[in-house]
């Protein structure tokens, strides 16, 4: 056997071991980017996928926030709250579909980017709002809530990156929550003035910030 063949054969176990190690590292990374409760992507994983999707002019950014979630935890316990969050996450992911992405940003706040092929978002999101409010199968029907949705078309703000679009969707969501409107689309007005990235109405934001236009 030639010296070269001997060297190649001796290197095979090392190459195989490295391939296994790489697969293990990828698995660890994928696990780290998944929320253990809902199975959705965490903020880092969501940001990576959403940034790619925003290159499509049909992209729509949606922010969802569970209404009165603290009251549910306080009344029925954190286990009931966790079941509710899992159900909402599953329903949201189902309606966004594999062409889009859904992430849990933290607590009871979720974000999604979907591709709106036929400009149907304005009609679909009110229906999604009702779906997300359904009681969870097998749970006490009293353990239910609504979810406020804010959304924005990326094409309306071509200069905005994901962070800017999420802020606009967040402001629209907050307006929907305050007005009990269910869903609200971000209008073409300017963003709220913020402190440390927080919009008016959240701790740390200016109380005299101007209102954003909504439609």
SSE order and pairing:
Elements: H1 3-32, H2 43-53, E1 59-66, H3 69-76, H4 78-96, E2 101-106, E3 109-115, H5 121-132, E4 147-153, H6 162-179, E5 183-185
Parallel strand pairs: 4-5
Antiparallel strand pairs: 1-3, 1-4, 2-3
Helix pairs in contact: 3-4
Provide structural commentary.
- By secondary structure, the protein is an alpha+beta fold.
- Helices cover 46% and strands 14% of the residues.
- It has a 5-stranded mixed beta sheet with strand order 2-3-1-4-5, sandwiched between helices.
- The N and C termini lie far apart (77 Å).
- 31% of the residues are buried.
Secondary structure tally, helices: 6
Computed CA radius of gyration, to the nearest angstrom: 22 Å
- The gross shape turns out to be globular
String of helices and strands: HHEHHEEHEHE
Largest sheet: 5 strands, mixed
Helix content: 40-55%
- Strand order of the main beta sheet, please? 2-3-1-4-5
Compute the number of strand runs.
Answer: 5
Strand content: 5-15%
Poorly predicted spans:
18-22, 24-31, 193-198, 203-215
Please give a handful of descriptors for the protein shown.
alpha+beta, five-stranded mixed sheet, disordered C terminus
Structure described in brief:
Helices cover 46% and strands 14% of the residues.
């Amino acid at each position: 056997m030639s010296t070269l063949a001997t060297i190649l054969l001796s290197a095979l176990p090392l190459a195989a071991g490295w391939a296994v190690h790489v697969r293990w590292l990828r698995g660890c990374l994928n696990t780290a980017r998944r929320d253990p409760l809902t199975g959705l992507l965490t903020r880092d994983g969501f940001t990576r996928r959403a940034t790619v999707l925003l290159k499509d002019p049909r992209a729509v950014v949606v922010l969802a926030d569970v209404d009165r979630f603290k009251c549910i935890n306080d009344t029925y316990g954190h286990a009931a709250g966790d079941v509710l969050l899992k159900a909402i996450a599953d329903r949201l992911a189902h309606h966004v579909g594999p062409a889009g992405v859904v992430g849990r940003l933290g607590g009871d706040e979720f974000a999604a980017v979907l591709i709106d092929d036929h400009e149907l978002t304005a009609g679909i999101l009110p229906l999604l709002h009702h779906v997300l409010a359904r009681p969870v199968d097998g749970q006490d029907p009293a353990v239910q809530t609504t979810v406020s949705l804010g959304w924005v078309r990326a094409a309306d703000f071509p200069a905005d990156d994901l962070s800017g679009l999420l802020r606009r969707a967040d402001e629209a969501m907050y307006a929907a929550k305050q007005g009990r409107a269910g869903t609200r689309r971000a209008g073409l007005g300017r963003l709220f003035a913020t402190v440390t990235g927080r919009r008016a109405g959240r701790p740390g934001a200016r109380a005299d910030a101007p209102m954003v236009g909504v439609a």
